Amino acid sequence: xxxxxxxxxxxxxxxxxxxxxxxxxxxxxxxxxxxxxxxxxxxxxxxxxxxxxxxxxxxxxxxxxxxxxxxxxxxxxxxxxxxxxxxxxxxxxxxxxxxxxxxxxxxxxxxxxxxxxxxxxxxxxxxxxxxxxxxxxxxxxxxxxxxxxxxxxxxxxxxxxxxxxxxxxxxxxxxxxxxxxxxxxxxxxxxxxxxxxxxxxxxxxxxxxxxxxxxxxxxxxxxxxxxxxxxxxxxxxxxxxxxxxxxxxxxxxxxxxxxxxxxxxxxxxxxxxxxxxxxxxxxxxxxxxxxxxxxxxxxxxxxxxxxxxxxxxxxxxxxxxxxxxxxxxxxxxxxxxxxxxxxxxxxxxxxxxxxxxxxxxxxxxxxxxxxxxxxxxxx
Length: 379
Prior knowledge:
Blueprint: H1 4-17, E1 21-28, E2 31-39, E3 54-56, H2 61-74, H3 84-87, E4 95-98, E5 101-104, H4 111-115, H5 128-135, H6 142-151, H7 168-180, H8 184-196, E6 202-203, E7 216-222, E8 225-231, E9 250-253, H9 254-265, H10 279-286, H11 292-299, E10 305-307, E11 312-314, H12 317-320, E12 329-330, E13 338-342, E14 347-352, E15 355-356, H13 359-378
Parallel strand pairs: 7-15
Antiparallel strand pairs: 1-2, 1-14, 3-9, 4-5, 6-9, 7-8, 10-11, 11-12, 13-14
Helix pairs in contact: 1-13, 2-7, 2-8, 5-6, 6-7
Organism: Candidatus Eisenbergiella merdipullorum
Protein name: Beta-lactamase family protein
Domain Beta-lactamase-related: 10-351
């Protein structure tokens, strides 16, 4: 294993793409075989990036949330065909957009349609019910109020008929809370974070309690050049303090998330032998689960991949010009975090940056890191 090319690539990201801080970890046979850091955690350049530097995962939270849903299924507390209305009655009375206004939805919103992003929900964060939720002065139950607000937003289409990236996994987070009987964060802590030793991963951010939190940036176009500019450390998907967004609200660090993807690549077992999830559930998670119509809609997003239960999954290496095998799976986050998991080779990688609106991350950096990782092992 020679990781020189991978390390060199991370080192050049600041000069090439103006990524102020970047880090990568690679797991093989459930142990960390490579870690590399570049840049600084703060804009002043006084704190080097390190393995415990925390940042917003954004949608990289989704893989953790969907893993938790699979654990609940193994515990017999949840099934793919359970209806969202079983847990939150407001979802049993969904409205769907039609030519002449709104009508009652014919199809039910199920755990399967939520996991596969075919629920008909949107990512319209400024929808009136969500604005009212954020402006509400007092919440008896934050998750309950959030789910009721989401249920008031008309569906864009009948559940299970189209693919659309949306708040579906936030609803999965709410369902986990109801099905488990404890808060979402508590369930993740007991079933995933604690067994894996992920001590820096949680919902919520308080700068006074997170002195090593990464500066957050936004990719800006200034005089024809793309520059990363520091912005407030806010995650808009968390909506209000105390809301635990399963779709985008977790805070983590390189070392913690590396343990998580390493566990999945190892078939659901931690380095010290604790079983988190069965191999069968991981296989189900990465199995393509979209109808032909939905598949075509997802391919517009990501050529060469299909979509399983909360993760992209490799189905055509040639279309993607990829060095990873069929069945490699994972996801990414809005600020540029990226992961892949390969159970065939017991190989996983997690990359961290903290720059919003950074198109090179998704178009160039992620696929390059994926392929360079495979070159380190199989060139």
